[in-house]
């Protein structure tokens, strides 16, 4: 039996709802087909956005959406995507799949999508191949209310009122696809570019995000921060957040491995590599602590998730992959880690929303399915804007290879906005159930209800069997005063709502 200790009296921090954020790039069938089909499509849509996808994402309470990339962001020139659609530039998406990009989804369409979703906006600007002026004018175009050439252009293009930009990324992966820069060079460019990312309405400040490291590139983090905090930098630097990118690819970057065809060794390898996220947050966080002594700068994990070999027969540049119970566990573990580090992690964006990498939704023509990862986000939504509670779970180490051992359980607990305690618990064992006893300090428990996602490790949804993996009610919980007892099934993600 494993004990879970919860202290409802000890609140550890606020869980920003943006921790459950998403990312959409002009890549493969994410934007086109996945989200946007155009007004004339036979697929039911509202102003071009697929109704089925929008409704599913609203149900999941998508809190924020990053756009337009990714690597695409540093090749994107926003002016190409505004104005009458028939005169927008057509070009080849050289980075992703060599297909025609007709720019029919641009700034106005993105803002319309976020309006329909009711989510916050996160725009990623172009440092790699764009100018300071271009970035500055984009922000002016989107957010300026007064008289200005860009505000006039926005109005001429059909939107009188300014849009709201909540988050703005100054470049993406500038150590790689975003310009192959070194940290000092990028740091200096950041100082320059961000100056012109102006907040025009002080009631709606734009949260500025610097390009952070890839995985364990601590030199990048150190180099960028040193440059940003040097000399004339404001006491708290010139940034609100710094990004971190870490993907789980069990077989390494070159091989990656199949999304659906794997054995138990690879299962544990995948989960073990996922747990590395916590080390990265701590290590990069420790560097950040040296500069940002007041701990005001957010760590923005704006690309994470599984990256497998794309599905056979699909364009390799489209990064289309299936999604199994293994992805569900990867999502559950990462979201628990982000919750536990909510003092630093202020936003995280899984890559990517639809049809790309670890997607929550897959589409095929007019068909749509929800992946196991979708169900995890839907269960975790109760943590959005909740207060993290002090919790600890006893674990044992499991796995088949010495190098890839993992704890059998992962958890996080919060006090939700609804006044209930929400526990999310993952069983990382591919085959063993575990007895759990949850002990709540000085708390009388009134009721518990739960939802579980469980199946065998390869299980996934297909367009022929779209509901093979689905959530079920979990009502096998015994209550006694301040304890609850239950058995968590193998290979599962569980959400418990506790009324006290
Ligand atoms: O998400 C796919 C790509 O991965 C993004 O475009 C890039 O930022 C990262 O390398």
Written account of the structure:
By secondary structure, the protein is of the alpha/beta class. Helix content is 24%, strand content 27%. The protein contains ten helices and 26 strands. Strands 23-22-26-20-19-16-1-21-25-24 form a ten-stranded mixed sheet, covered by helices on one side. Strands 2-5-8-9-10-11-12-13 form an eight-stranded parallel beta barrel, surrounded by four helices. Strands 3-4 form a two-stranded antiparallel ribbon. Strand 6 and strand 7 form a beta hairpin. Helix 5 crosses helix 6. It binds alpha-L-arabinofuranose (AHR). The site of alpha-L-arabinofuranose has 10 residues, from loops. Alpha-L-arabinofuranose binds next to loops.
Condensed summary:
This protein has helices at 51-59, 107-117, 132-143, 149-156, 183-195, 218-228, 252-255, 264-291, 325-340, 372-380, and strands spanning 2-14, 21-23, 45-46, 49-50, 64-67, 91-93, 99-101, 120-125, 167-170, 207-210, 241-248, 298-306, 345-351, 361-364, 367-370, 387-393, 397-398, 406-407, 409-415, 421-427, 434-440, 447-454, 471-474, 478-480, 483-488, 492-499. By secondary structure, the chain is of the alpha/beta class. Bound molecules: alpha-L-arabinofuranose.
Question: What labels describe this entry?
Answer:
500 residues, alpha/beta, ten-stranded mixed sheet, eight-stranded parallel beta barrel, 24% helix, binds alpha-L-arabinofuranose
Oligomer: single chain
In what order do the strands lie side by side in the largest sheet? 23-22-26-20-19-16-1-21-25-24
- Output mean pLDDT: 97
What proportion of the residues form beta strands (DSSP E)? 25-35%
What structural class do helix, strand and pairing data support? Answer: alpha/beta
- Poorly predicted regions are none
How many separate helices? 10
First-to-last CA distance: 23 Å
| Portion in helices | 10-25%
Total beta strand runs: 26
- Largest beta-sheet details: 10 strands, mixed
| Rg computed from alpha carbons, rounded to a whole number of angstroms | 22 Å
Shape: globular
The molecules bound to the chains, other than polymers, are: alpha-L-arabinofuranose
């Amino acid at each position: 039996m494993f004990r879970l200790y919860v202290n409802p009296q000890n609140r550890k921090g606020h869980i920003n709802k943006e921790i459950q954020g998403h990312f959409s790039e002009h890549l493969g069938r994410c934007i086109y087909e996945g989200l946007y089909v155009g007004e004339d499509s036979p697929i039911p849509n509202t102003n071009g956005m697929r109704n089925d996808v929008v409704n599913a994402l609203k149900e999941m309470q998508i809190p924020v959406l990053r756009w337009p990339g990714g690597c695409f962001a540093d090749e994107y020139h926003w002016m190409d995507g505004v104005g009458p659609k028939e005169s927008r530039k057509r070009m080849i998406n050289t980075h992703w799949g060599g297909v025609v990009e007709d720019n029919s989804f641009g700034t106005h369409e993105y803002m319309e999508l976020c309006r329909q979703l009711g989510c916050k906006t996160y725009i990623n600007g172009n440092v790699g191949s764009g100018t300071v002026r271009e970035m500055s004018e984009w922000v002016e175009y989107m957010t300026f209310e007064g008289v200005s050439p860009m505000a006039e252009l926005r109005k001429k293009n059909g939107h009188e009122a300014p849009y709201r930009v909540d988050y703005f990324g100054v470049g993406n992966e500038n150590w790689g696809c975003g310009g192959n820069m070194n940290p000092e060079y990028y740091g200096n460019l950041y100082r320059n570019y961000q100056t012109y990312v102006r907040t025009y309405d002080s009631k709606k400040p734009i949260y500025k995000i610097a390009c952070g490291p890839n995985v364990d590139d601590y030199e990048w983090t150190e180099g960028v921060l040193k440059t940003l905090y040097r000399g004339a930098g404001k006491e708290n630097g010139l940034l609100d957040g710094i990004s971190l990118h870490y993907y789980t690819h069990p077989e390494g970057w070159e091989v990656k491995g199949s999304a659906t065809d794997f054995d138990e060794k690879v299962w544990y390898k995948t989960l073990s590599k996922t747990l590395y996220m916590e080390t990265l947050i701590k290590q990069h966080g420790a560097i950040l602590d040296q500069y940002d002594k007041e701990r005001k700068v957010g760590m923005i994990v704006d690309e994470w998730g599984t990256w497998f070999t794309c599905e056979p027969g699909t364009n390799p540049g489209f990064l289309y992959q299936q999604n199994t119970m293994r992805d569900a566990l990867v999502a559950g573990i990462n979201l628990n880690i982000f919750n536990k580090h909510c003092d630093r992690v202020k936003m995280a964006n899984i890559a990517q929303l639809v049809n790309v990498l670890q997607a929550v939704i897959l589409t095929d023509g007019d068909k749509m399915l929800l992946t196991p990862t979708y169900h995890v986000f839907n269960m975790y939504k109760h943590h959005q804007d909740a207060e993290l509670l002090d919790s600890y779970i006893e674990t044992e180490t499991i796995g088949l290879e010495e190098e890839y051992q993992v704890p059998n359980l992962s958890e996080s607990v919060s006090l939700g906005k609804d006044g209930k305690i929400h526990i999310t618990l993952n069983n990382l064992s591919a085959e063993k159930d575990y007895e759990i006893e949850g002990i709540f300090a000085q708390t009388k428990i009134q009721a518990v209800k739960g939802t579980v996602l469980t199946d065998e490790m390869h299980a996934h949804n297909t367009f022929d069997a779209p509901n093979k993996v689905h959530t079920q009610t979990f009502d096998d919980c015994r209550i006694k005063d301040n304890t609850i007892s239950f058995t968590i099934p193998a290979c599962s993600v569980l959400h418990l709502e506790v009324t006290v």
